[in-house]
Design goal:
Elements: E1 6-14, H1 21-39, E2 44-51, H2 55-64, H3 68-85, E3 92-95, H4 99-114, E4 118-128, E5 133-135, E6 153-162, H5 168-174, E7 181-182, H6 184-195, E8 201-202, E9 204-206, E10 215-216, E11 219-224, H7 226-231, H8 233-239, E12 253-257, H9 261-274, E13 283-286, E14 289-290, H10 307-314, H11 316-326, E15 333-334, H12 337-366, H13 383-390, H14 392-401, H15 405-426, H16 428-434, H17 440-457, H18 462-472, H19 520-524, E16 528-538, E17 546-551, E18 556-561, H20 569-572, E19 576-580, E20 586-588, E21 591-593, E22 596-597, E23 599-600, E24 607-608, E25 610-611
Parallel strand pairs: 1-2, 1-12, 2-3, 7-13, 12-13, 14-15
Antiparallel strand pairs: 4-5, 4-6, 6-8, 9-11, 10-11, 16-17, 16-19, 17-18, 19-22, 19-25, 20-21, 23-24
The chain binds 5'-O-[(L-methionyl)-sulphamoyl]adenosine.
């Protein structure tokens, strides 16, 4: 179809609860993909929404002594605010209580009823009040509902059914097309489901049991089952989007968690096919964020992670980056705040943030004037790095088409690291003092490459990358970096209690062999950096201590070190040492110490581990 919009959706979240990290992830992922597609020139329509019917909503409203609609309205504000705080740029947010939706639900129900695909039948089954759903004897696990393991009761009632069984063969045929569900493991799950007998779907609830729902148009006694109602949103939203635009059907990408695969990959296409409506192009079912104890993070799990608290603490863009970087789409991922923080401090503050501040600082020292972006790499730029920069957009686009944003980010950060390596080799802070002309082209090119990186990362971190681009260029689009700006401050873990103090009974002189074994991951948390000692002096009242002022790249800080018996202050100035930079600052004999210097030996004969004087402050020590 001409001018077909690229139509991408998230699930419609249950309005009753507050957004947690799982909901935030799907929505951020959809937003990131939508922004990338916009950047690649597609006319995107990004839909999210709220699932507002169901007995739980009615019960919650009753407890609050308000109407269900009032309850939905006030909860909808919370959800919308959450998306605003997480920089979600959706085109439409549909609520299942809107008339534009309920009308379409009624239309489709009537269409299917007239066609004979919906019929009334007495039904007996095991009903879970919590899941608001019937199960057959076979479905039950140890006599309880198979979803949450909660008690069920035998009930008998009349209900309307959708002839899902009639579409089993069509569905089997439909899924010959492998591209319809990704990743393939999920497609296989769907195929597995279809290999068993598919039964007709109960799609109504008596009003006595479900007071808050879309009425069955021809029978006043019943309302529509929430899922039959909610799924249709994706279609109703195209009929009258709020801005009046025409959103062309079908959906290009339904983004969902793997928990709702059957509803989306079996019920939904069958419903559409029965109604004579084209089916979606693709469903992407991602995995779950798992809690510490291994279970899925959910409203009712012990560990509920509030994305807004995290965004408040670490920044919305930083959180977006870390979540997208940490999860391989399709697989489960264990949620761990330390890893999130590590991403923020290592990738963003050290690798990307430092790159900008270092380049901007040298530019300022050189007093260079605004310069046009270089299209060709000047002498001194390694061919490999130039190539990496040139194919960056291609790689990013390639991975985004395959919904592998974490891999796209990996490519981008390889280029960031390549640039860091380049400037560590070129050492522009030296040359700028002696022969600034010799490095202006290299600097201009590196800053241009950073501009490209900012562009490529902007769908993930829209606000931060807009800042970076603004600082990099002047109003006419020339390279002219603003110095003294810190893009990503280093963060500390806020939510958790402080780490336990080490066991005082353990000897400080423990040998290598009786030390606790640590994992690579644990070691990875120790951030070792090259630091240049700018000045050194004796501690005013401790003869073993020196006060060192150290440049660690991202900042200058004081480190108090017990090496006064082994080194005179003047021997240390200008030397490059190894500093543990992510150590919690401490007061040592009244002086603040932010970090620790690596040295060997003990007592009065300590040997500091020196690095080559040429090493750039802030470089990572591996
Ligand atoms: N209302 C239904 C969906 C109807 S769509 C027509 C629903 N809502 S929900 O509020 O429970 O949201 C479920 C979705 O939230 C999942 O499919 C997934 O996108 C996201 N997540 C909820 N918990 C999650 C994790 N622990 N991890 C990752 N995402 C998960 O189901």
């Amino acid at each position: 179809m001409k001018n077909k919009k690229y139509y991408i959706t998230t699930p419609l979240y249950y309005v009753n609860g507050e957004p947690h990290i799982g909901h935030a992830y799907t929505t951020i992922l959809a937003d990131v993909l939508a922004r990338y597609q916009r950047m690649f020139g597609k006319d995107v329509h990004f839909l999210t929404g709220l699932d507002e019917h169901g007995q739980k909503v009615a019960d919650a409203a009753k407890a609050l002594k308000i109407t269900p609609q009032q309850h939905c309205d006030s909860m909808a504000v919370i959800w919308k605010l959450a998306w605003e705080k997480l920089n979600i740029q959706y085109d439409d947010l549909i609520r299942t209580t809107e008339v534009r939706h309920t009308k379409v639900v009624s239309d489709i129900l009537t269409r299917l009823y007239d066609k004979g695909d919906i019929y009334l039948k007495e039904y007996e089954g095991w009903y879970s009040v919590f899941e608001e759903q019937y199960f057959t004897e076979k479905d039950l696990i140890d006599g309880n509902d198979p979803i949450g393991g909660r008690p069920v009761e035998l009930r008998r009632e009349d209900n309307y059914f959708f002839r899902l069984s009639k579409y089993q063969d069509w569905l089997i045929e439909h899924y010959q097309d492998k591209s319809l569900v990704v990743p393939e493991t999920r497609l296989n799950e769907v195929k597995g489901f279809l290999r068993n007998e598919v039964r007709d779907l109960c799609i109504s609830r008596p009003k006595s049991r479900l007071s808050w729902g879309v009425p069955i148009p021809w029978d006043n006694e019943f309302v529509t089952w929430v899922w039959f109602d909610a799924l249709i949103n994706y279609y109703s939203a195209t009929i009258s989007p709020p801005d009046g635009s025409v959103v062309s059907w079908p959906v290009d990408y339904h983004l969902i968690g793997k928990d709702i695969l059957t509803t989306h990959a079996v019920y939904w296409p069958a419903m559409l096919h029965a109604a004579g409506i084209e089916t979606p192009s693709k469903i992407l079912a991602h995995g779950w964020w798992m809690g510490k104890e291994g279970g899925k993070i959910s409203k009712s799990s012990k560990e509920v992670v509030n994305p807004l608290d995290l965004a408040e603490r670490y920044g919305a863009d930083q959180l977006r980056y870390a979540l997208i970087r940490e999860m391989t789409v399709g697989q489960d991922s264990s949620y761990n705040e330390e890893s999130i923080l590590n991403r923020i401090n290592v990738d963003l503050a050290n690798d990307l943030g430092n790159l900008y501040s270092r380049l901007a600082k040298v530019w300022q020292t050189g007093g260079f004037s605004p310069t046009k972006v270089l299209t060709e790499a000047p002498d001194g730029i390694p061919e490999e790095l130039d190539e990496q920069k040139q194919v960056l957009q291609y790689h990013v686009q390639f991975e985004i088409e395959r919904v592998r944003p974490n891999v796209a980010i990996e490519h981008i950060f390889n280029t960031v690291r390549g640039l860091n390596k380049l400037i560590e080799q070129v050492k522009p802070w030296k040359a700028v003092k002696t022969d600034p002309d010799s490095i202006v082209d290299i600097l201009t090119w590196a800053l241009g490459a950073l501009g490209e990186i900012a562009k490529m990362l902007s769908p993930v971190m829209p606000n931060k990358m807009a800042d970076l681009q603004e600082w990099l260029y002047d109003d006419s689009g020339r390279i002219d970096p603003t110095p003294g700006k810190q893009l990503f401050p280093r963060m500390k873990l806020v939510s958790k209690s402080e780490p336990k103090k080490s066991d005082p009974k353990k000897s400080a002189k423990s040998s290598a062999s009786d030390d606790t074994i640590i994992t690579f991951d644990e070691f990875g948390k120790v951030d070792l950096r090259a630091g240049k000692i700018l000045s050194a002096s004796k501690h005013p009242d401790a003869d073993k201590l020196l006060l060192l002022q150290v440049d660690v790249g991202s900042d200058q800080r004081q480190v108090v070190s017990g090496i006064a018996k082994s080194y005179a202050p003047e021997d240390l100035i200008g030397k490059c040492v190894i500093i543990v930079v992510n150590l919690k600052p401490a007061k040592i004999r009244g002086e603040k110490s932010s970090g620790m210097l690596l040295a060997s030996g003990d007592g009065d004969s300590l040997k500091v581990a020196f690095l080559d004087d040429d090493v750039i402050p802030g470089s990572k020590v591996h």
